[in-house]
Amino acid sequence: MKVTEYFEQAKGETLVSFEVLPPLKGGSMQAIFNTLDPLMEFKPPFIDVTYHREEFIYKKRESGYYEKTAIRKRPGTVGICASIMHRYGVDAVPHLICGGFTKEETEDVLIDLNFLDISNVLALRGDAMKFEGKFLPRSGGHEYAIDLVKQIEAMNTGKYLDDNIENGEKTDFCIGIAGYPEKHFEAPNMEQDMYWLKKKVEAGASYIVTQMFFDNQKYFDFVDLCRKNGINIPIVPGLKPVTKLYQMNSIPRMFYINFPDALVKEFTKAKDAKARKQVGIEWCIAQSKALKAKGVPCLHYYTMGDVKTIKSILEKVY
């Protein structure tokens, strides 16, 4: 079933969903089950699985020279989605990214997903490669998320990359996209961010999942701005508890977001790691309750493998 259909059936009730990362290459599906098993009591209708582009490493050859080699450290997104659906009977939402994939490779993945009856995807540009100053698409790949959305929507009408295909199978993907309550870091201003967000909606996107944020007012302002710009699809808030001191620096640097002064103050004055973690948990609980009280369509939690923390939050919210 489509993500948007779950929202419609909920009739104002706030659903819950989770995002998981594929295990590192060499790991097992049990790592995913260990994360999700304790959370299934909260009845998520769908679970997101991230996609990861290749990384480059340098391997030393017998000659003594180093060879630049591409590796994908977290493969398996499609298989993980199929396994989640089989084990739990819930829908899986694979992330699709521009980075590291050609249009043909993207089409092949979409065909696999269609054959597996996976009817939801989250279309993202993806991040730049490490040590690259900006995002660079793979040769023959998409440069922007809107182009990925257009390709998926084209397949929904039966149009494939090969123009010789007539009467192609029409897929029926529900397309999600990302939204940034504090502005995408590459956008010169919020006006331009809104412009391209609306273009993605016009291209076929059906719902938005936001980047994590720690000030609910940022989310509410973002929703208001979307509505004023004619973006009327569901907007799902993305949440992650901050639990470690180093995250005070790493999260703003990696995700281009800000922490509220009140959270920073409470976090830094906590006496030890246990106390700091509790501050982060309580903050996320308060965020979740306030968002739920406003009737948001769903609370989407970035688990990052920390199942105990996420469960402790949900026990207070649901």
Record keyword descriptors for this entry.
11 helices; 9-stranded parallel beta sheet; TIM Barrel; alpha/beta; 318 residues; two-stranded antiparallel ribbon
Account of the 3D structure:
The protein has 318 residues and is an alpha/beta fold. The chain has a single domain, classed as TIM Barrel. Helices cover 41% and strands 17% of the residues. The protein has eleven helices and eleven strands.
CATH class: Alpha Beta
The CATH architecture can be given as Alpha-Beta Barrel
Fraction of residues in helices? 40-55%
Radius of gyration: 20 Å
Strand content: 15-25%
Beginning-to-end CA distance, first to last residue: 23 Å
Briefly note the structural class of the backbone.
Answer: alpha/beta
What is the H-and-E element order? HEHEEEHEHEHEHEHEEHHHEH
Looking at the structure, what is the overall shape?
Answer: globular
Q: How many beta-strand runs?
A: 11
Cross-sheet strand order for the largest sheet: 9-8-7-6-5-2-1-11-10
The biggest beta sheet reads: 9 strands, parallel
Report the CATH topology name. TIM Barrel
Count of separate DSSP helical elements:
11
**Rounded average pLDDT:** 94
Low-confidence stretches: none
Q: Could you say how many structural domains there are in total?
A: 1
